[in-house]
Design goal:
The complex is a heterodimer. Chain A is about 30% helix and about 15% strand. Chain A is α/β, with parallel strands linked by helices. In chain A, strands 1-5-4-2-3 form a five-stranded parallel β-sheet. Chain B is built from no helices and eight strands. The chains are: A alpha/beta, B mainly beta.
């Protein structure tokens, strides 16, 4: 797999905006960003209201995903290009999700919305209308999704990569610094996890670092790239970004995203937790 | 569903649910020729230069972080290749304020 199979740049998107069979999708937690301006032709997916089950803590199921994509006018053989705010966290999360449900041709716009804005490229408010499709999803590919028991089993056996900020890792903070901190769970990290914030994989403008830089970053932090890996964060979107870097860019074969992440692990009764700086 | 990790929309008013007595706030306003700049990116870096968080300014040009007490760097990125750094100290119960003219 090469970088161009999974990542496109802004020039590519500008040149191919009107290609049939290409669908741009903006994915954000805060969809008002899309409403104020988006790349021409892009449809939006709301990370919370459209990708999460409204009752249980889980994703929409296969049927729900089929209905969502059919309603957005996305067909099985479309090339889907995802982008979004927050350095593509939610776009990377959606990318993982499209892979989970077996979509064939999906890529990320490198740098996402941020790079597009910093380049002063065109944003429009017109919402496209796309005819509905009859989308068929596959069963979830659980080779890329870790659940809580696998997170516990990975202690001391697999690479565990904690991609939160250093203060969340050490237990000083329970959430990123742009959010208020009151929460009802224990702070810290999963024992034996390496602290490699997602941001290490990205440049200031939100684009991914080169393959060589990425390999160096993970190797320097003590990750054995030949071993199975589980990545986690607080709720699984920042770790989708790292999952993308490891599996899609570096081509590692066994990388799972633990989407339960710290809000689940830090609330489990009886599991081991470590505090403080990386060991 | 748990709130996501994305930064909330940045507004001048601090949300009523936040008890400022327990927070170490760093906030600022980005302006260009006196006018607030929206869609500027404020990045919070810790004392070792490690990235900690990022928010996008809204219509009022405001950014805000709930940090841990200590020394921080705020890096502001904006269209036109702007990238400027500021150092600032945060303390619980205080709002450390920056005026960023680009």
């Amino acid at each position: 797999m090469s970088r161009s199979d999974v990542l496109v740049d802004a020039a590519f998107v500008e040149a191919h905006l009107d290609d049939p069979g290409l669908v741009l999708v903006e994915v954000d937690e805060d969809v008002s960003a899309y409403d104020k301006g988006h790349i021409r032709g892009a449809v939006k997916i709301d990370w919370k209201s459209e990708l999460q089950d409204p009752v249980r803590r889980d994703f929409v199921d296969k049927t729900g995903f089929e209905q969502l994509l059919s309603g957005k006018g996305i067909a099985n053989d479309d090339l889907v290009i995802l982008y979004g705010g927050n350095n593509n966290w939610f776009a990377a999360y959606a990318y993982w999700y499209f892979k989970l449900y077996g979509h064939g041709n999906v890529k990320l716009l490198d740098g996402g919305r941020k790079k597009w804005e910093l380049d002063s490229r065109e944003l429009v408010v017109d919402v496209p209308s796309r005819p509905a499709t009859d989308y068929k999803a596959q069963d979830q590919d659980l080779s890329i999704r870790a659940f809580r028991d696998e997170a516990v089993e990975a202690i001391g056996t697999k690479n565990l990569i904690d991609v939160r900020s250093p203060d969340e890792f050490s237990g000083k903070l329970l959430a990123p610094a742009h959010l208020p901190q009151e929460q009802a769970q224990r702070a810290g990290h999963i024992p034996t996890a390496r602290s490699i914030p997602w941001s290490k994989a990205a440049n200031d403008d939100g684009t991914f670092k080169s393959d060589d830089e990425l390999r160096q970053i993970y190797a320097d932090a003590g990750v054995d790239l030949n071993k199975a890996t589980v990545a986690y964060c607080r709720i699984g979107e920042r770790s989708s970004h790292t999952w993308f870097a490891l599996r899609e860019l570096l081509g590692l074969s066994d990388v799972k995203n633990y989407d339960g992440s710290w809000t689940e692990y830090g609330s489990l009764v009886g599991v081991p937790i470590e505090l403080g700086e990386p060991k | 569903m748990t709130q996501g990790c994305a930064a909330p929309v940045q507004t001048a008013r601090i949300p009523a649910t936040v008890d400022l007595a327990n927070e170490a706030v760093i906030q600022g306003t980005v302006t260009r020729d006196g006018d607030p700049v929206s869609s500027a990116y404020a990045r919070l870096l810790d004392s070792t230069g490690e990235f900690t968080g990022e928010v996008v300014t809204g219509d009022e040009g405001i950014f805000r972080f709930f940090a841990a007490p200590g020394d921080w760097t705020v890096r502001v990125l904006a269209a036109g290749g702007v990238s400027v750094d500021f150092t600032i100290t945060a303390a619980i119960g205080e709002v450390a304020a920056l005026e960023v003219a680009i």
